[in-house]
Amino acid sequence: MILKKLSLVLAVAVLTAGAQAQAPVPLQLELPKPLFAGTPRPISLPNLEAPRAGKRPDLMVPAGTANLSKGKAVTSSDSLPVIGELSYLTDGDKSGTDGTYVELGPTPQWVQIDLGAKAKVAAIALWHFHSQARVYHDVVVQVSDDKDFKTGVTTVYNNDDDNSSKLGKGKDLAYIENFEGRLLDAKGAAGRYVRLSSNGNTSDELNHYCEVEVHGALVK
Amino acid sequence: MLANVRRWLPIALVAVTALWLRTHDLAVRPMHADEANQAVKVGALLERGHYEFDPADHHGPTLYYAALPIAWLRGERNLAALSETTVRLVPALSGTLSVLLLYFFAAAFGRWAAITAAAFLAIAPASAYYSRYFIQESLLLAFFLATILCAQRWWRSGNGCWALGAGVGAGLMQATKASAPLFIFAALVALWFVRRNAFKTTRPKRDLAVFLGAFFLSAALFYSSFGTHVGGLADALATYAPAAGRVTEGSGHEKPWFYFLSLFGWQRSGGLLWQQLLFSGLGLGGALVALRHSHPFLRGALIYTTVVGIALAVTPYKTPWHVIHLIPGLAVLAAGALAAIPFRSVAIVLAAFVILAQWRQTDLAVFLRPADARNPYAYVHSSPDVRKVRGLAESALAHSPQGAIRVISEEYWPLPWYFRGLDRVGYWSLPPDDCDAAMILASAANTAAVRSRLRGRYRESYLGLRPGFICTVFIKEAP
User: Fold this and answer.
1) pTM: predicted TM-score of the whole model, two decimal places
2) Which value does ipTM take for this structure?
């Protein structure tokens, strides 16, 4: 009888602890400082989203979520960037100054991060270029277990509204780059690889990345 | 025959290289606001056959008239048909002509030195870049070199025909840009200091009269729009009042005195390296040679370049295209430095290094990053995004055939160029009461107001006019 009661208490304790472990917590992101040097031209965020007042809302992610992309291997459709290195995407430096971003050529280009193992991705934070107000065109972010992204592809974000990148028509909103980067809710998309595409920007035809963080947990 | 080939082949190769650098893929760069503005004026001249000089906001008429024969030859009879390549062929051809004119002018300095100077001018990044840019600067430089070449020939031969040529050249300079007197003045200062022999003519008064007559006649022809707009003659003088205001106040283009020097130095911008140290070093070497040895030609180049350089340095108003007026003098000085090297093989190797280094910079500026904000020659340049606007407009009008295109922005060039040939396009600096249209392009400052006045469903996207200047594109959706 006593053994039965003890087992019940133990079971309740384990369940409670498990529930506490799965309770969502706010994702903590380290942000670089704003880089709009001097007086920028007056740009009043004419974006498709309502301009946000105050702090960015927290994105709730499962407890234990970690940055899985730090230091991970990066490949790209432009394998030899003229400026910067692909490794800059995952080196943890998102300051945006010269020497901290990689510049890919014109036309649609992608970068791909190999997380090393299959993961459940909770959030993806990306910084293209934030020392000038600009909008990157046709931003598409996908997760897959297939390194060629032919099967099992989950699209996390897509603002290519005319399918010019041939990755499907997207309904997400375009946005002006700033020091906060773009925080995407990946909703637990599973895969080993994360691929990000873009097609130039409002200032030039090139594609840039300061940093990409993939937050989640490896699937055991 | 073989002697002729040997004589002309080197300069022919230099000229062909210059022509290729100036004409290859001319439409690759989006139109700068200034180019678009002037190209639209060419379109109006093509269509209406009439032009009136605007003394307040525009330079002289020669650029527009020079584009006409090229447009006719290419079968472009109106603004809608006019192309980037057509208008940019004007500076491209005049830029190539400048290379040849410098060769002939510098030939007195020695054939190989002249060829080297011409080669340096041909491949200089700024020379190549602005010879593909539909503004007055390249034309002005060509007219200047033609003028001093004619003056040089007149001085040595005494033939009045050269005085006539110099007068026409100077008149065309004046009809190109109000800054023309600066370059004539600098050339006269150089001549004053380096002249050794008196001019050959026996009838200097007659030749002066010929020069002045040719000068006034050629300038007057263009400013009066070939006699169809006499008021243009007074405006040719009136233009100096607003020009003086712009030049002395800077009007947003103020830069430090060393700005032009910095273009010949070393600068790293956003990971791109811009440098002309070898060329500048050689030019400096040529200046030392000119000071130590009393070679009049080299010394003249030094004095001319110094006078122009000082004038540009002390003027608050600075735009990078003015730098092309320093390059012929620097090219001559650099060639002079090479000529002063006693070992021919060393000079050849050094020349090859300079040409290679300059070529790489020109390739970067002209072909690889022609509209990049980090390119020091791409000044307040339009974003490549602007080339999408025509397709967006045509698509929007296809869905709303009775619709219009509204541009509601405090700045809108070069959009009128990209909308050329479309009938129903309007421009507002502030949102009108009725903003509805097939497509609306609103600046960031006007976006919220425009959005609040729209009725019906619109799809929104972004388009960059220039780096940092983003517009919102509203396209009406089908009901």
Assistant:
1) 0.85
2) 0.76
